[in-house]
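Next up, sample data.

:::
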Amino acid sequence: MILITILMNNKEANPFEKGDLNDWIQKEISFDPQWEENKGNELNQNALEQYYLEKYGFFINEKNYDQYLSLASETDSRYEKISNIILRIMLLSDYDFTRHFISHLINNTINSVQPNPITEDSIPEAIQQTYIERTHRTQNLIENFIIYKGQYSMIMLDGHSACYHEFISAFDNFWHAVKGEYFDFFNRKIFSKINDSTEAVNTLKILQNKDIEEVLLSDCFLDLNEKILNRISHYNTFAMLLDIKARVMLNIALQDGYFMENLDKKNVFNTPGLTAYKNTQKLDKELDKLIKFLVRTVALT
Protein backbone atom coordinates (compact mmCIF):
# COMPACT_ATOMS: atom_id res chain seq x y z
CA MET A 1 0.00 0.00 0.00
CA ILE A 2 2.85 2.39 0.83
CA LEU A 3 4.46 1.60 -2.53
CA ILE A 4 1.24 2.42 -4.40
CA THR A 5 0.92 5.65 -2.46
CA ILE A 6 4.42 6.63 -3.60
CA LEU A 7 3.65 5.64 -7.19
CA MET A 8 0.47 7.73 -7.31
CA ASN A 9 1.86 10.66 -5.29
CA ASN A 10 -1.58 12.23 -5.55
CA LYS A 11 -4.50 11.87 -3.15
CA GLU A 12 -6.95 12.71 -5.93
CA ALA A 13 -5.88 9.64 -7.92
CA ASN A 14 -7.23 6.66 -6.02
CA PRO A 15 -6.14 3.43 -7.76
CA PHE A 16 -8.71 1.35 -5.85
CA GLU A 17 -12.42 0.83 -6.47
CA LYS A 18 -15.30 0.04 -4.17
CA GLY A 19 -17.89 -2.53 -5.11
CA ASP A 20 -18.25 -6.13 -6.19
CA LEU A 21 -15.46 -7.76 -8.20
CA ASN A 22 -17.85 -9.53 -10.57
CA ASP A 23 -19.72 -6.29 -11.28
CA TRP A 24 -16.42 -4.58 -12.03
CA ILE A 25 -15.40 -7.37 -14.41
CA GLN A 26 -18.65 -7.00 -16.34
CA LYS A 27 -18.09 -3.25 -16.57
CA GLU A 28 -14.59 -3.78 -17.96
CA ILE A 29 -15.90 -6.29 -20.49
CA SER A 30 -18.44 -3.70 -21.64
CA PHE A 31 -15.54 -1.31 -22.32
CA ASP A 32 -13.52 -3.94 -24.18
CA PRO A 33 -15.18 -7.31 -24.88
CA GLN A 34 -11.85 -8.86 -25.89
CA TRP A 35 -9.81 -8.12 -22.78
CA GLU A 36 -10.62 -11.38 -20.98
CA GLU A 37 -11.15 -13.64 -24.00
CA ASN A 38 -7.78 -15.38 -23.97
CA LYS A 39 -7.81 -16.08 -20.25
CA GLY A 40 -11.41 -17.29 -20.49
CA ASN A 41 -10.38 -19.76 -23.16
CA GLU A 42 -7.57 -21.11 -20.95
CA LEU A 43 -9.46 -21.63 -17.67
CA ASN A 44 -12.73 -23.20 -16.59
CA GLN A 45 -15.28 -21.02 -14.79
CA ASN A 46 -14.16 -21.85 -11.23
CA ALA A 47 -10.49 -21.34 -12.07
CA LEU A 48 -11.35 -18.13 -13.91
CA GLU A 49 -13.12 -16.70 -10.86
CA GLN A 50 -10.11 -17.55 -8.68
CA TYR A 51 -7.81 -15.95 -11.25
CA TYR A 52 -9.85 -12.72 -11.19
CA LEU A 53 -9.83 -12.67 -7.40
CA GLU A 54 -6.04 -13.08 -7.24
CA LYS A 55 -5.32 -10.72 -10.14
CA TYR A 56 -7.75 -7.87 -9.46
CA GLY A 57 -9.21 -8.43 -5.98
CA PHE A 58 -6.58 -6.29 -4.24
CA PHE A 59 -7.64 -3.21 -6.22
CA ILE A 60 -11.38 -3.84 -6.27
CA ASN A 61 -11.63 -3.60 -2.52
CA GLU A 62 -13.50 -1.08 -0.38
CA LYS A 63 -11.15 -1.50 2.60
CA ASN A 64 -8.10 -0.76 0.48
CA TYR A 65 -9.92 2.17 -1.12
CA ASP A 66 -10.42 3.75 2.30
CA GLN A 67 -6.94 2.84 3.51
CA TYR A 68 -5.39 4.57 0.52
CA LEU A 69 -7.30 7.76 1.34
CA SER A 70 -5.98 7.61 4.89
CA LEU A 71 -2.38 7.23 3.72
CA ALA A 72 -2.28 9.43 0.63
CA SER A 73 -1.56 13.15 0.65
CA GLU A 74 -1.30 15.94 -1.87
CA THR A 75 1.40 15.68 -4.52
CA ASP A 76 4.80 15.89 -2.80
CA SER A 77 7.77 17.00 -4.92
CA ARG A 78 10.11 15.00 -2.68
CA TYR A 79 8.62 11.78 -4.06
CA GLU A 80 8.58 12.91 -7.68
CA LYS A 81 11.71 11.08 -8.84
CA ILE A 82 11.10 7.81 -7.00
CA SER A 83 7.47 7.80 -8.20
CA ASN A 84 8.65 8.19 -11.80
CA ILE A 85 11.25 5.46 -11.50
CA ILE A 86 8.66 3.00 -10.18
CA LEU A 87 6.38 3.98 -13.08
CA ARG A 88 9.22 3.33 -15.54
CA ILE A 89 9.71 -0.15 -14.09
CA MET A 90 5.99 -0.79 -14.51
CA LEU A 91 6.21 0.32 -18.15
CA LEU A 92 8.62 -2.57 -18.70
CA SER A 93 6.12 -5.14 -17.47
CA ASP A 94 3.00 -4.98 -19.65
CA TYR A 95 2.72 -4.28 -23.40
CA ASP A 96 -0.85 -2.95 -23.41
CA PHE A 97 -0.25 -0.71 -20.40
CA THR A 98 2.91 0.71 -21.98
CA ARG A 99 1.47 1.57 -25.37
CA HIS A 100 -1.77 2.99 -23.98
CA PHE A 101 0.03 5.00 -21.28
CA ILE A 102 2.42 6.61 -23.81
CA SER A 103 -0.44 7.22 -26.25
CA HIS A 104 -2.59 8.88 -23.59
CA LEU A 105 0.39 10.87 -22.34
CA ILE A 106 1.01 12.30 -25.82
CA ASN A 107 -2.66 12.94 -26.59
CA ASN A 108 -3.30 14.65 -23.26
CA THR A 109 -0.32 16.89 -23.89
CA ILE A 110 -1.40 17.79 -27.43
CA ASN A 111 -5.00 18.38 -26.42
CA SER A 112 -3.93 20.66 -23.59
CA VAL A 113 -2.98 23.28 -26.20
CA GLN A 114 -6.00 25.32 -27.23
CA PRO A 115 -6.18 26.13 -30.96
CA ASN A 116 -5.25 29.69 -31.84
CA PRO A 117 -8.14 31.95 -32.88
CA ILE A 118 -8.71 31.74 -36.63
CA THR A 119 -9.79 34.63 -38.82
CA GLU A 120 -10.34 34.69 -42.55
CA ASP A 121 -6.96 36.34 -43.05
CA SER A 122 -4.94 34.19 -40.65
CA ILE A 123 -5.98 30.58 -41.21
CA PRO A 124 -2.53 29.20 -42.23
CA GLU A 125 -0.67 31.19 -39.58
CA ALA A 126 -3.08 30.30 -36.76
CA ILE A 127 -3.02 26.59 -37.60
CA GLN A 128 0.75 26.56 -37.87
CA GLN A 129 1.15 28.40 -34.56
CA THR A 130 -1.08 25.82 -32.85
CA TYR A 131 1.12 23.01 -34.20
CA ILE A 132 4.25 24.82 -33.04
CA GLU A 133 2.87 25.19 -29.51
CA ARG A 134 1.83 21.53 -29.46
CA THR A 135 5.28 20.44 -30.62
CA HIS A 136 7.00 22.51 -27.95
CA ARG A 137 4.65 21.17 -25.29
CA THR A 138 5.34 17.60 -26.43
CA GLN A 139 9.08 18.23 -26.44
CA ASN A 140 8.95 19.60 -22.88
CA LEU A 141 6.87 16.61 -21.80
CA ILE A 142 9.40 14.14 -23.20
CA GLU A 143 12.34 15.99 -21.67
CA ASN A 144 10.65 15.95 -18.25
CA PHE A 145 9.64 12.31 -18.62
CA ILE A 146 13.23 11.32 -19.42
CA ILE A 147 14.61 12.98 -16.30
CA TYR A 148 11.86 11.59 -14.01
CA LYS A 149 9.90 14.81 -13.61
CA GLY A 150 6.15 15.22 -13.69
CA GLN A 151 3.08 13.60 -12.16
CA TYR A 152 1.29 10.92 -14.18
CA SER A 153 -1.15 9.16 -11.86
CA MET A 154 -4.30 10.25 -13.71
CA ILE A 155 -2.91 8.97 -17.00
CA MET A 156 -1.91 5.67 -15.38
CA LEU A 157 -5.45 5.06 -14.16
CA ASP A 158 -7.16 6.29 -17.34
CA GLY A 159 -10.21 7.39 -15.39
CA HIS A 160 -10.79 3.77 -14.27
CA SER A 161 -12.15 3.11 -17.76
CA ALA A 162 -11.15 0.74 -20.57
CA CYS A 163 -7.44 0.58 -19.72
CA TYR A 164 -7.74 0.38 -15.93
CA HIS A 165 -7.29 -3.40 -15.91
CA GLU A 166 -4.01 -2.87 -17.81
CA PHE A 167 -2.72 -0.73 -14.94
CA ILE A 168 -3.65 -3.49 -12.49
CA SER A 169 -1.94 -6.15 -14.62
CA ALA A 170 1.17 -4.00 -15.00
CA PHE A 171 1.37 -3.40 -11.26
CA ASP A 172 0.82 -7.11 -10.59
CA ASN A 173 3.65 -8.06 -12.99
CA PHE A 174 5.89 -5.38 -11.50
CA TRP A 175 5.18 -6.50 -7.92
CA HIS A 176 5.92 -10.16 -8.60
CA ALA A 177 9.21 -9.18 -10.25
CA VAL A 178 10.50 -6.96 -7.43
CA LYS A 179 8.77 -7.96 -4.19
CA GLY A 180 11.70 -10.08 -2.99
CA GLU A 181 14.06 -7.13 -3.21
CA TYR A 182 11.57 -4.80 -1.54
CA PHE A 183 10.93 -7.24 1.31
CA ASP A 184 14.66 -7.63 1.87
CA PHE A 185 15.18 -3.85 1.80
CA PHE A 186 12.39 -3.03 4.26
CA ASN A 187 13.37 -5.89 6.56
CA ARG A 188 16.86 -4.43 6.81
CA LYS A 189 15.87 -0.78 7.01
CA ILE A 190 12.66 -0.89 9.04
CA PHE A 191 11.48 -4.18 10.52
CA SER A 192 14.87 -5.26 11.82
CA LYS A 193 14.80 -2.18 14.07
CA ILE A 194 11.74 -3.41 15.93
CA ASN A 195 12.88 -4.90 19.22
CA ASP A 196 10.88 -7.57 21.00
CA SER A 197 10.63 -5.72 24.27
CA THR A 198 7.84 -7.10 26.45
CA GLU A 199 7.04 -3.53 27.45
CA ALA A 200 5.44 -2.82 24.09
CA VAL A 201 1.98 -4.20 23.43
CA ASN A 202 2.64 -3.82 19.72
CA THR A 203 6.30 -3.42 18.83
CA LEU A 204 5.35 -1.85 15.49
CA LYS A 205 4.27 1.21 17.45
CA ILE A 206 7.90 2.15 18.05
CA LEU A 207 8.09 2.97 14.35
CA GLN A 208 6.92 6.49 13.65
CA ASN A 209 5.89 8.12 10.38
CA LYS A 210 9.13 10.06 10.24
CA ASP A 211 11.14 6.82 10.42
CA ILE A 212 9.34 5.33 7.42
CA GLU A 213 9.46 8.61 5.51
CA GLU A 214 13.20 8.83 6.10
CA VAL A 215 13.68 5.39 4.54
CA LEU A 216 11.41 6.11 1.56
CA LEU A 217 13.24 9.34 0.80
CA SER A 218 16.70 7.86 1.35
CA ASP A 219 19.38 7.55 -1.32
CA CYS A 220 19.54 3.81 -0.71
CA PHE A 221 15.85 3.34 -1.62
CA LEU A 222 16.38 5.43 -4.74
CA ASP A 223 19.48 3.38 -5.59
CA LEU A 224 17.54 0.15 -5.15
CA ASN A 225 14.88 1.20 -7.66
CA GLU A 226 17.42 2.54 -10.14
CA LYS A 227 19.28 -0.79 -10.01
CA ILE A 228 16.02 -2.70 -10.57
CA LEU A 229 15.15 -0.47 -13.54
CA ASN A 230 18.60 -0.84 -15.11
CA ARG A 231 18.70 -4.60 -14.56
CA ILE A 232 15.29 -5.27 -16.06
CA SER A 233 15.74 -2.90 -19.01
CA HIS A 234 19.11 -4.41 -19.95
CA TYR A 235 18.74 -8.11 -19.17
CA ASN A 236 15.12 -8.95 -19.97
CA THR A 237 14.32 -9.22 -23.69
CA PHE A 238 10.64 -8.44 -23.30
CA ALA A 239 11.30 -5.42 -21.07
CA MET A 240 14.02 -4.16 -23.40
CA LEU A 241 11.58 -4.21 -26.34
CA LEU A 242 8.93 -2.39 -24.31
CA ASP A 243 11.50 0.27 -23.44
CA ILE A 244 12.31 0.71 -27.15
CA LYS A 245 8.58 0.74 -27.98
CA ALA A 246 7.98 3.64 -25.57
CA ARG A 247 10.96 5.58 -26.94
CA VAL A 248 9.83 5.06 -30.54
CA MET A 249 6.29 6.27 -29.76
CA LEU A 250 7.68 9.42 -28.15
CA ASN A 251 10.01 9.96 -31.10
CA ILE A 252 7.15 9.65 -33.60
CA ALA A 253 5.16 12.21 -31.61
CA LEU A 254 8.03 14.68 -31.90
CA GLN A 255 8.41 14.08 -35.63
CA ASP A 256 4.66 14.42 -36.19
CA GLY A 257 4.86 17.85 -34.65
CA TYR A 258 7.89 18.85 -36.71
CA PHE A 259 6.23 18.07 -40.05
CA MET A 260 2.92 19.69 -39.09
CA GLU A 261 4.53 22.93 -37.93
CA ASN A 262 6.56 23.17 -41.16
CA LEU A 263 3.74 22.58 -43.61
CA ASP A 264 4.38 25.97 -45.18
CA LYS A 265 7.81 24.86 -46.39
CA LYS A 266 7.56 23.33 -49.86
CA ASN A 267 10.32 20.79 -49.34
CA VAL A 268 9.27 19.60 -45.88
CA PHE A 269 8.09 16.24 -47.24
CA ASN A 270 11.10 15.80 -49.52
CA THR A 271 13.93 15.65 -47.01
CA PRO A 272 16.14 13.00 -45.37
CA GLY A 273 14.10 13.66 -42.25
CA LEU A 274 10.99 12.26 -43.90
CA THR A 275 12.81 9.02 -44.74
CA ALA A 276 13.88 8.70 -41.10
CA TYR A 277 10.31 9.41 -40.03
CA LYS A 278 8.90 6.67 -42.25
CA ASN A 279 11.58 4.25 -41.03
CA THR A 280 10.64 5.03 -37.43
CA GLN A 281 6.99 4.27 -38.20
CA LYS A 282 8.02 0.96 -39.78
CA LEU A 283 10.12 0.16 -36.72
CA ASP A 284 7.11 0.83 -34.50
CA LYS A 285 4.97 -1.64 -36.46
CA GLU A 286 7.70 -4.30 -36.45
CA LEU A 287 8.14 -3.86 -32.70
CA ASP A 288 4.42 -4.45 -32.23
CA LYS A 289 4.64 -7.71 -34.15
CA LEU A 290 7.67 -8.92 -32.21
CA ILE A 291 6.31 -7.93 -28.80
CA LYS A 292 2.95 -9.57 -29.50
CA PHE A 293 4.84 -12.74 -30.43
CA LEU A 294 6.83 -12.65 -27.20
CA VAL A 295 4.11 -11.41 -24.86
CA ARG A 296 2.84 -14.93 -24.18
CA THR A 297 6.22 -16.58 -23.94
CA VAL A 298 8.52 -14.18 -22.09
CA ALA A 299 7.63 -13.05 -18.57
CA LEU A 300 9.17 -10.22 -16.60
CA THR A 301 11.78 -11.82 -14.31
